[in-house]
Amino acid sequence: TRIAFEVKLQKTSRSTDFRVPQSICTMFNVMVDAKAQSTKLCSMEMGQEHQYHSKIDELIEETVKEMITLLVAKFVTILEGVLAKLSRYDEGTLFSSFLSFTVKAASKYVDVPKPGMDVADAYVTFVRHSQDVLRDKVNEEMYIERLFDQWYTSSMNVVCTWLTDRMDLQLHIYQLKTLIRIVK
Description:
Order of helices and strands: HHHHHHH
Largest sheet: none
Strand content: under 5%
Radius of gyration: 22 Å
Structural class: mainly alpha
Helix content: over 70%
Number of domains: 1
Number of strands: 0
Oligomer: single chain
């Protein structure tokens, strides 16, 4: 199940249009069912049953931890892609100056959406959709809590690292607004 889980994640999108597939949730539920059924599946003589059963439980727990880690890594990759788009607005880059100039010039003639807000909106939609799907489709609340906790911690670490890398730069207004919307 873990290998199929990893292969499925590798084939999916790395951008904010990623949607958690039903099959990913099903694989989590297979692990939940395997843990619940392990006593029935591992029945042996009384002395051996306990030892074998605990090894199966350990294997299932390790597999679930790996699956959570893989899914969190996928979510972090998507956040890194969003932050890479925001990096285009770094102070002193030619692209940043060009974007600021074109938005100001074009806004005199037409209603121009502000750069970055579409990126923030797409990321927020991705997060909300992913959380909803996982909450609705995965049967074990403990696994979901673990997943969300790791996801939040990893995401905040990535954002902190990104901000630390720019400590000597002034954030562009669109970077700031986007980060506020993402972290909020």
